[in-house]
Hints:
The chain is of the alpha/beta class. It has 13 helices and 14 strands.
Amino acid sequence: xxxxxxxxxxxxxxxxxxxxxxxxxxxxxxxxxxxxxxxxxxxxxxxxxxxxxxxxxxxxxxxxxxxxxxxxxxxxxxxxxxxxxxxxxxxxxxxxxxxxxxxxxxxxxxxxxxxxxxxxxxxxxxxxxxxxxxxxxxxxxxxxxxxxxxxxxxxxxxxxxxxxxxxxxxxxxxxxxxxxxxxxxxxxxxxxxxxxxxxxxxxxxxxxxxxxxxxxxxxxxxxxxxxxxxxxxxxxxxxxxxxxxxxxxxxxxxxxxxxxxxxxxxxxxxxxxxxxxxxxxxxxxxxxxxxxxxxxxxxxxxxxxxxxxxxxxxxxxxxxxxxxxxxxxxxxxxxxxxxxxxxxxxxxxxxxxxxxxxxxxxxxxxxxxxxxxxxxxxxxxxxxxxxx
Length: 388
């Protein structure tokens, strides 16, 4: 029985790629930025070899890392959650998903408004916390929905839970998802409910993503079709629109995501447990909160101390990311085009330094190879380089 725990630290980039400037990202480096915070304490990641990865100039290298380490460069055109996760799972996207820096076309909004029976407010790229401050009162008075986007390929619908019940908001998102296909096939339609707390609008944890279905088979499809287990923790199920997943659990943030992953480590299964820890991106990267990001990584590092002893002889732990979101990059609060780290740990793993490789998809190919699954997906397996 083989178990793979694949954990994505959402937005944990480790430095600009050669084409980052093409995406408006100059000198971005999520890891280096948070390493300057007094909240930054990551002894377990240090022991695994995080600071030994190519191009990482902050932190202290160790003489004998415990994990195989690598720096990965993204092949796909994009820097968003959907594209990044799809590439991890074996799909390289030659064309970026559509974005809307000037808002969505009137034709899209008219069709959406007609089908849901409500008007539309905003229709601009906006910070999620600021948009409810600026449009929340008008939304309450009119019942019109707050529609906004970002530099990512997203159509976001914000609504007060007292004005639009959650089930209704989710139904509106499904309607938008049906409309937004083809030319306007955004990566995600996102429900962004909020409430009033002490006279101020606050977003709730009832966010829900409605993703575009992957255009090809992924690592998850291949593993599931081979009769093995595919377990999703957090928003993985939504990112892949449920494709290739036979068990899933939603979470309300990193702490619950780590707790659920720990519970799966105490359980027998044969296959993959795929976890996304979203708080790094959602709560800290996008809000330029360096200390918050550093504290969240330190919490994850502490959790590793309780997780690693649970790994069995044939288990693999893979830690990586899907893009960057440098919280110190005040030019923007959006994702940043960065290399991502790859740490592979296990009792059978040879702790080698694999340098820099092109393609997050090498992860998916390696996972399938380790599980003995034939997979016609993008990427090259690193298994022969890392297994003793």
